[in-house]
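Quick one, probably user error.
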């Protein structure tokens, strides 16, 4: 079995059971940043340099989405020929921030609706002989959908 690691070292905890994005939180004003901010808080009225790494929420609300028809630049690894994919902007409620991510394999923009709940998942971006490199993706929250359907 291949080892699974994050393709974005430090951005993303690729634990397949419970994938989480890693952001920064300002100790002073409690603002969140993603990707991580290493040196100083970006809140112009704060400017503290006391930042800590924190796992971000793994669910959010779909804020916007789009189809990407352009091959992203390296180090992004794309299938050849390039296959367009959907990108979701998901708002994390606790952190009050929007995180962009590819939409999970098999999910089309037709499956998406602004305002729906989205879950963070880990999917393989590419692999070599020993290792699978994972990235985060967004997928419509299965649990809430199932709950809706089971209602009489
Ligand atoms: Zn701050």
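Nope, works fine. Designed sequence:
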């Amino acid at each position: 079995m291949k080892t699974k690691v994050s393709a974005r070292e430090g951005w993303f905890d690729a634990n397949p059971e419970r994938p989480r994005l890693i952001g920064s939180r300002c100790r002073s004003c409690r603002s969140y940043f993603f990707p991580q901010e290493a040196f100083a808080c970006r809140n112009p009225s704060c400017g503290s340099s006391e930042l800590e790494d924190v796992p971000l929420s793994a669910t959010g609300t779909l804020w916007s989405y789009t189809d990407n028809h352009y091959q992203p630049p390296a180090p992004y690894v794309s299938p050849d020929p390039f296959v367009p994919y959907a990108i979701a902007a998901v708002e994390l409620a606790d952190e009050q921030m929007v995180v962009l991510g590819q939409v999970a394999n098999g999910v089309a923009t037709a499956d998406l609706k602004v305002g729906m709940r989205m879950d963070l998942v880990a999917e393989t971006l590419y692999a070599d002989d020993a290792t699978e490199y994972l990235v985060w993706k967004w997928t419509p929250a299965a649990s809430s959908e199932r709950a809706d359907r089971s209602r009489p």
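The pocket of zinc ion is lined by residues 26, 28-29, 31, 41, 43, 46, 48 (CB under 6 Å).
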